[in-house]
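Aggregate trends can hide what the representation actually does to any particular protein. The sequence in question and its structure tokens are set out directly beneath this paragraph.
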Amino acid sequence: MATDRPLIVVPDDFPSLFQGSVAHERCKSLGEVRVFTERGADDESVLLDRLYKARIAINIRAHARFTEAVFERCRTLKMVSIWGTGTDNVDLDAAGRHGVTVTNTPGVNADAVAEHTLALMLAVARRIPQIDRQMRDGAWPREMLTQLRGKVLGVFGCGRIGDRVAALGTAVGMTVLPWSARAADLAEKGHLLAASDVISLHLRLTPQTRGFLGARELSAMKPSAILVNTARGPLVEREALLDALQHRRIAGAGLDVFHDEPLKPGDPVLGLPNVVLSPHNAGQTPEVIRDGLLRAVENVAGYLTGQPADVVVQPLGRRR
């Protein structure tokens, strides 16, 4: 590896988490560090300007998209260290072709996201947001609520988050049906959809999983079923989900992720009374932020010493 101090750029620290953190101080020991805390990395031209001469990029926010064009133009870029598990904002094939190593931080947020998933399940099942609003308006609601004990929880995705959600579901007395595309002996997709009282999504967003649940899959669910998505919005076809919720083909949903983030004023999902919303913050705890940012920086340190960890993409060749 080169002995000169590399330029390490954080092009997308908005809203800012990295600036001034313990991870930031650790990063300064590895090279020259530039952190951009203003929004703008979702504009490719701005992202390119910020990455000028960078050897390493630490990717904080998914709105910064590392495309074929970005890798083509950023000729000095050799590594992208992602904070978080999701890699759908990075063209992984292009990274490999252009000689760029990509790493992420899997599992760091598993406990936090799993807890948030359970919270959304309970909030929808017990109608907590609606009841809270009614009581503040002077009502004393007496409607029937949904008990989770004795119900079936279908978990799509058996990574660290999915496994933790399954454990929490078991702890509250649910029967868990796991599903993984890599394990043929687990519950088949159609059976799981039809049998589950709660469906929880924990799949990575890939070309194969985009639209994983569409109109056909949603129609296979029980009318009394609840859908929880703390993974990625596009795993579910947007119009099909809105239709199913508006016409009560499913009972409700707990959503932490959306097709467009942040949600725009007037988005139809905002008017649905059977949906509980949170702003893609399931993993936003001090512990997750501290540990995840440090791990992203330690992945940089490992790369610089020739011992990279958490590798998603290895370079396929050298830069032309």
